[in-house]
Design brief:
Layout (H helix, E strand, L loop, with lengths): L5 E6 L9 H9 L4 E5 L6 H10 L5 E9 L4 H6 L6 E6 L7 H8 L8 E2 L6 H14 L3 H27 L1
Parallel strand pairs: 1-2, 1-3, 3-4, 4-5
Bound molecules: 5-O-phosphono-beta-D-ribofuranose.
Length: 166
Amino acid sequence: MIQPIKVAVIMGSDSDLDRLKPCLDTLRAFEVPFEARVLSAHRTPAELIRFVEEAPDANIGVFICAAGGAAHLAGVVAGHTSLPVIGIPMDNAPLGGLDALLATVQMPGGVPVATFAVGGGGPKNAALFAVRVLALSNPDLAEKMVQQRAAMATQVLEKDQKLQAR
Ligand code: RP5
């Protein structure tokens, strides 16, 4: 039996977990299997690299990496894999996330990290982007994505009608 491709969600600390809830909830909503791990580019470098190198054997197809402060997690992962890497800068450090945004997004040419917004829709959009990557080879997932977009549009139009009826 063909195993579904998984998403690896790596966070630099368990203090990132609450902010990642919209990301994990979105993956659950699409019934995308994922593995969530706390692994740090700085505190557990050897374990992180081992996990990244073993990922293809674990049927992992996409990485989502969330870190704050000196957020090197996504970049280090991207340097050790050819799989797509998505970065989410966390805003739980004293500089409010700008530090993490710059550390995540300013990658050298040749080592891409698809970087999403600090706070707001960032964690959710990171998950939706991972779903879109997997949907390229999964027609069921592609159909769910179409349905999700239609449902979102319906919700907005309902709100518009309510506003006009006031
Ligand atoms: C980063 O440092 C983590 O991703 C986290 O966002 C931040 C603070 O970590 P803790 O000191 O709360 O463990 O590596």
